[in-house]
């Protein structure tokens, strides 16, 4: 593979990594908050922090690879993506709870908590994924297509959104990429 292609892929990935991080952190905090609240709040804020560190492992192993796959064809709040997150959440919660409890029996599948945790883990990850990542990405558009009439369109779109204070990080990156001459 040529060096400029590798550099281009790394550049595209580095634009998206903060959004993956925000999605992951928000999902972990949301799930751990719900788990603490439904355990009658006996853990408090310390419980949210501790459970977040436990929850990040299955999210990283099971949900983030699926998220990367979905991010190739972004769709905001897609029910198909939600169903697939539930599908991958069930074995993730089963394996993780089996490893933590040192109990590899199938008894866990008969509890309501297993399904509630699986569903809520998928719901939170799907929601934050849709908020942070599943949108049309202007920053992935190649520089070749931004020359000429497209450059004026994106510049005017950026200034209009500045006037209404609705600026996203991808729009700022796009502005600097198109405004700086080659």
Question: What is the topology?
Answer:
Elements: H1 3-38, H2 44-70, H3 79-101, H4 112-132, H5 143-146, H6 149-163, H7 169-179
Task: Describe the protein's architecture and organization.
With 182 residues, the chain is an all-alpha fold. Helix content is 75%, strand content 0%. Helix 6 crosses helix 7. The longest helix is centred in the N-terminal third of the chain and has 36 residues. About 16% of the residues have low confidence.
Characteristic terms for this protein:
182 residues, mainly alpha, 7 helices, 75% helix
Helix content: over 70%
Instruction: Work out the strand percent.
Output: under 5%
On the 0 to 100 scale, the average pLDDT is 75
The backbone outline, from C-alpha atoms, is globular
Query: Count of helices?
Result: 7
How many individual β-strands?
0
Q: Summed up, what is this model?
A:
Helix content is 75%, strand content 0%.
